[in-house]
Model the fold of this input.
Amino acid sequence: MPEAFPPLRIGPLAVGFPITQAALSGYSDWPMRVISRRHGAAYTLCEVMLDRFVMQVTQGNKAKRILRVTDEEHPCGAQLMGNAPEEFEQAALKLVELGFDCIDVNFACPVRKVLGRRRGGYLLGRPDVALEIVDRLRVCLPAEIPLTVKMRRGLDESQESLDQFYSIFDGSFARGVAAVTVHGRTVEQRYQGNASWDFLRQVKQHAGNRTVLGSGDLFTAQASLDMMSATGVDGVAVARGAIGNPWIFEQARALFAGEPLPPPPSLHQQRDVIVEHYRMAEETYGVWRCGRIMRKFGIHYARLHPESEKVRKAFINVHRPKELATVLAAWYHEDLPGRYPDPSHLAEED
Done:
């Protein structure tokens, strides 16, 4: 790894390679996280969970499907979201008991339903509540479990919003947070426009030696390297760019080592990963649910196929395991070269 990019640490966790997989609602479940790790991600985050959901689901067998951590995943973090400071503590302790190595707090989600319930990005406008959550969590968690925070660069472009951002950012570190991940868009932007890497650079300059990870518009391995070079952040969290493309992590590792960008995975390489992803999804969700799960992942895997639009339409019609097998037999039987996904198409999806 180049000297300009030292190994990443998140408190006591020695992560090493500074390209991590972000928490992805509806996606970063156990199968996706494990596959990302096998392809080079040094650290992954479970999809965001409501504090109340954690306490309810851990009371039954459903926890074995939803809140699963296995040996090859460590270190692995869990992301929490809610609006009542007192409800975070029990949920965080339960996640640690289940084996997660780090607790991350979501002050970033821009989804309207989440904002309407005063969660996620809504709390960027309530520094008092956000910092009470951080304070309670840091006090209740064991010292060896790092606490981190995910933020956007504010609710909107106003000076008040910027002031609130820094109030939460500095206040979180003052209360013992090990790292803050900053997405370069406002909540108001959602996923429109470009993430501001200039803002990330300013935040890292302000932070000094405190650990800051950047996020936003990381759709290629080269973008991860470029963000770190342009902003000085200590690491990056790849979100949408990792769905259906775990190879982005091993490609980034090659670039960080000064090697040429590896070729995109061939169709047989893609097929083998899709088959393994399906096997793990079936193990996690059961034979009847995993077809629907793999349909949404298959649509993303299709971007790496030279006939991506046709393959995407084929995956849309997958509902049962035998239908997935039909798609693989039709479109992945010949080991043709794959392709890199088109970043412009990824950026337009949300």
In short: The chain has a mean pLDDT of 91. The two ends are 33 Å apart (CA to CA).
